[in-house]
DNA sequence: TTGTACGCGTTATCAA
DNA sequence: TTGATAACGCGTACAA
C-alpha cells in the first residue's frame, strides 16, 4: 500500500511526486519539465505543466535550496529603516535583486553592534547567497565581518563601509563631498567653520571629518578642535551639539556649520533658532543627504544630494555579480553626488 | 574509507555530523545539545557546544526548515517602500518579528497587481509561515489572496485591507477618521468641501470617500459629485486633481479640500499656490498620514496622525499569534488615530 | 542518555 | 528522453 506516497498528504502542499503520479512519469521528469531543462519530451512537458497548474503546485524553494546549496536570496543589514535615506537605498536594492531573480531578507540592527551580529548570524544560518551591510554605529571591531567573508560569503558594504577586509564597498566619496561643502562655505567668506561630526566608528563619520579638516588646511585656515563636536546622525544629537557650540563666548562662535548629515543639521537649526539667531545671517549651515525635508525647512538646507537609490542598486548589482562569479570582491565603487545649493549657506 | 564523511567537505560549512565526529557522539546528540533538549548529558552538552563554537558552526536553517516544515519567517508585501509611512510600518513589523524569533522577507509590488502576485507566489515557494500584505492599487480581484488563505497560510492585511475573506485586518478606521476631518472643516464654517480621493480599488480609498460623504450627509450638506476627484496617493496625482478643481468657475470652487493622504495634499497645495491662492484663507486643506513633511510645509498641514509603527507591530503580532495557533483568523483590528490640527485648516 | 533509520522535497548523476 | 538512487543537513520516532 504505498499508494499513499503519491497522494498529497493531508494538510500538505502538492509535491513533484504527486504531479509525477498524475502524469505517469517520475519526479525527476517533473523537475526537468518545471525547470525548462532541454532533455524533456515536448509533449511530456506540456502534460506536466498542465497538471502542475491544475493542482496549484508551488515549488518548494526550501528543498530546492537545500539540494542546490544556494538560496537565490540576499541578506540586507541596515542600521535603521525609518528615515528617508535607507528606504530609498532598499528600493534600489530590491529593484536590482528582483531583476536578477533574487529575493531579500531584511534585518535592521537599530544601530546596535550585538543586534547586528545576531542579524548576520541569522542570515548566515539562512544561507543567503550574499550580504549587503551598512554598519551600525556601535560596531567596534570587524571580526564578525571578517569571519563571514573568510567562510566564503560575498559581502558588499554600502554607505557606511569597511575597506580592506576583502569586501566591496559602494558609497559616495565622503571626504571629497565634505571638502566641497566646506570649501563652498570658505568661498563665501565664512571664517570660523564648525563641524558636527558623526561617530568615528563608521566610515562616513571619519571620512567627512577628514574632508572638513583637509578643506581648512588647503585654504590656510586654522583647525580649532573646539569647533568639532560629535552629534551623531540624528536630530537630537545635532541639537545637543549645536547647543554646546552656542555656549562658546560670542567672539569664538562659528559663523558657519558643516553638519555630518541632514538630520543633524535640522537639530542644529532648531538650536540656532531657539537662540534667536538667524540662518544664514548669524550662522550658516550645510548638511549632507538631501533628506525630503531639506527644501522645506524654514531656511532651506544646502546639502549634498546623496543618490540613495543608486547606491542601493549598485551595491546589489555588485554583490550579485560577485555571487555569480562575474567580478571579484574588494572593489571600491564611488557614486557621484551633487551639491544642492539652497539658502542655509547664505550664498543665494 | 568513509572517514571523509566526517570531515568538512572542502568549501562547505561545518555540519552537525562534523561536530559529532569531533566529540565522538552521533549527529543526533549534537542536534539535541544545540537545541537545548532535556535529554542530553550535561558534560556531553558542554563538549558539543564547545566544539560547535570552536568550529564556527552555523546551523543550517534551510535543512531545519525542510525537516520541520516551518521557516520562522514572515513574508511582507508592501506597495512601495520609499515614502515615510511604509518604512515606519516595516520597523514595527521588524520589531515584533524580532522579539518573537521570526525573520522577514520583504517584497514590494510597486503598486502593480501582477508583480504583487509574483511576490506572493515567491513567498509561498519560500514557505513563509505567514503573510503580511498591504494591497497594490491595481489589484482587481481577490482570487490570489483567497487561494493562499485556502491552502492554509495565515494572512494579515494592514493599512490597505481586504475584509471577509478569512484574513485578519489591521488598520485605522478610515471612514471614521475621514468623518472627523470633514466635520472639523464643517465645524469651522466651510461650505463647499471637495475630496481628492484614492483609487476605489483599495480599502482606504473607499473608506475615506465614504466617510467624506457621511459627514456631509450628517450635517445636511449637499454632495456634489464634481467636487470628488481621483488623485491617487501621490503628489503628482494630488496636483493634477487640484488643478482640475481649480478649473471650475470661481463661484463653484471649493473653499476646503479633504485629501486622501498627505502626499496628495502636498501636490494639491502646490497647485493652489501656483494659482496665487492662499492656504487656508482662500482654500483650506487637510490630509491624512502625518508625513514627516506635514509640519514643515509653508502652511503646516492639518492631518490624521496614522500610527504607522503601531499598525506594523500589531499586524505582525496578530499574524504570529495566528501562526502559533493562539488566535483565530478573520479579526478586524482598529488602531486609534489622532487628529493633528495645524494651520492649513484655518482654525488656528 | 544515546544511536539508528527514515523523512522533509528537491536536484545531480549515472545508467537504461 | 527517462528513471533509480543518492545526496543536501537536520529532526522525529523509536529502539537500545
Describe this structure in words.
2 copies of one chain form a homodimer. By secondary structure, chain A is an alpha/beta fold. The first copy, chain A, has 3 domains: 3-59, lambda repressor-like DNA-binding domains (434 Repressor (Amino-terminal Domain), Orthogonal Bundle), CATH 1.10.260.40; 72-172 and 308-336, Rossmann fold (3-Layer(aba) Sandwich); 174-305, 3-Layer(aba) Sandwich (Rossmann fold), CATH 3.40.50.2300. In chain A, 42% of the residues lie in helices and 14% in strands. Chain A has 12 helices and 12 strands. Chain A is elongated and about 90 Å long. In chain A, 51% of the residues are buried. The interface between A and B is large, with 45 and 45 residues. The first copy, chain A, binds a DNA duplex (16 and 16 nucleotides) through helix 2 and helix 4.
Unreliable stretches of chain A, pLDDT < 50, 5 or more residues? 1-5
Q: What is the CATH first-level class name of the largest domain in chain A?
A: Alpha Beta
Order of SSEs of chain A: HHHHEHEHEHEEHEHEHEHEEHEE
β-strand number of chain A: 12
CATH architecture of the largest domain in chain A: 3-Layer(aba) Sandwich
Q: Write down the oligomeric state.
A: homodimer
Strand % of chain A is 5-15%
What is the total domain count of chain A?
Answer: 3
The tally of helices of chain A reads: 12
> What is the overall shape of chain A?
elongated
Fraction of helical residues of chain A = 40-55%
CATH topology of the largest domain in chain A: Rossmann fold
Amino acid at each position: 500500500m504505498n499508494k499513499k506516497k503519491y497522494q498529497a498528504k493531508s494538510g500538505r502542499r502538492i509535491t513533484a511526486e504527486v504531479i509525477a503520479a498524475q502524469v505517469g512519469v517520475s519526479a525527476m521528469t517533473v523537475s526537468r519539465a518545471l525547470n525548462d531543462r532541454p532533455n524533456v519530451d515536448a509533449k511530456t512537458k506540456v502534460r506536466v505543466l498542465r497538471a502542475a497548474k491544475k493542482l496549484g503546485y508551488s515549488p518548494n524553494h526550501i528543498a530546492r535550496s537545500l539540494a542546490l546549496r544556494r538560496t537565490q536570496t540576499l541578506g540586507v543589514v541596515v542600521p535603521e529603516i525609518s528615515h528617508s535615506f535607507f528606504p530609498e537605498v532598499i528600493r534600489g536594492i530590491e529593484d536590482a535583486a528582483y531583476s536578477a531573480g533574487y529575493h531579500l531578507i531584511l534585518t535592521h540592527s537599530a544601530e546596535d553592534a550585538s543586534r547586528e551580529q545576531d542579524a548576520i548570524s541569522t542570515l548566515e544560518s539562512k544561507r543567503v547567497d550574499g550580504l549587503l551591510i551598512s554598519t551600525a554605529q556601535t560596531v567596534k571591531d570587524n571580526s564578525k565581518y571578517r569571519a563571514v567573508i573568510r567562510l566564503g560569503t560575498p559581502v558588499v558594504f554600502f554607505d557606511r563601509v569597511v575597506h580592506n577586509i576583502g569586501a566591496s564597498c559602494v558609497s559616495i566619496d565622503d571626504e571629497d563631498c565634505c571638502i566641497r561643502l566646506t570649501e563652498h562655505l570658505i568661498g563665501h567668506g565664512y571664517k570660523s567653520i564648525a563641524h558636527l561630526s558623526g561617530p568615528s566608528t563608521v566610515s562616513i563619520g571619519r571620512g567627512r571629518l577628514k574632508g572638513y579638516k583637509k578643506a581648512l588646511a588647503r585654504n590656510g585656515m586654522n583647525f580649532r578642535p573646539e569647533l568639532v563636536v560629535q552629534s551623531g546622525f540624528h536630530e537630537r544629537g545635532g541639537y545637543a551639539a549645536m547647543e554646546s557650540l552656542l555656549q562658546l563666548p560670542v567672539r569664538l562662535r562659528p559663523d558657519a556649520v558643516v553638519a555630518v548629515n541632514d538630520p543633524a543639521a535640522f537639530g542644529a537649526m532648531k538650536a540656532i533658532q531657539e537662540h534667536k539667531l538667524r540662518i544664514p545671517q548669524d550662522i550658516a549651515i550645510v548638511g549632507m543627504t538631501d533628506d525630503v525635508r531639506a527644501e522645506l525647512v524654514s531656511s532651506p538646507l544646502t546639502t549634498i544630494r546623496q543618490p540613495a537609490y543608486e547606491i542601493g542598486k549598485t551595491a546589489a548589482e555588485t554583490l550579485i555579480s560577485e555571487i555569480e562569479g562575474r567580478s571579484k570582491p574588494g572593489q571600491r565603487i564611488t557614486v557621484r553626488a551633487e551639491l544642492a545649493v539652497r539658502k542655509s549657506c547664505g550664498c543665494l
